[in-house]
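Question (not urgent): is this output format expected?
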Amino acid sequence: MAISTHVLDATAGRPAAGLGLTLSYRPRRGLAWRTLTRRVTGKDGRVAGLDAPEPGDYRIVFDTGSYQPEGFYPEVAVTFRVTDPAGHYHVPLLLSPFSYATYRGS
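Got this back:
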């Protein structure tokens, strides 16, 4: 099972290169989050090949404050559930200083 993300800077109209993020995991609600990896988006705004060990809840915390210091959101946390061990989970983030949007991509 794999997780990927793509961050787009809506204000600049280009990929958000150099944005830090942390992927965490918990097997079920009520248990503590465990950090799996810390990564930085490439020049295309993407991070691929984030391995997901098993079904459960995952969270990507994007360090938006370092990327857009003038922005309103110092970080964006996207929590989602992985159910299919053979699936690919793509989590895009569209970012501007005062808003963001995310969805399950393909």
